[in-house]
Amino acid sequence: MTANLLDFDLEGLAAFCERLGEKRFRATQLFRWIHQKGASDFEQMTDLAKSLREKLGASAHVQGLKVVSRHDSADGTVKWLFDVGAGDVIETVFIPEADRGTLCISSQAGCAVGCRFCSTGHQGFSRNLTTGEIVSQLWFAEHFLRQHLGRQERVISNVVMMGMGEPLQNYSQLVPALKVMLDDHGYGLSRRRVTVSTSGVVPMIDRLAKDCPVALAVSLHAPQDALRDNLVPLNKKYPIAELLEACARYQTAAPRDFITFEYCMLDGVNDQPEHAAQLVSLMKTHAIKGLSCKFNLIPFNPFPASGLKRSDMPQVSAFAKILMDAGIVTTVRKTRGDDIDAACGQLAGDVQDRTGVDQRMAAQRQGMLGGIKVVVAKGTNV
Ligand code: SAH
Ligand code: SF4
Question: What is the domain count for the chain?
Answer without folding.
Answer: 2
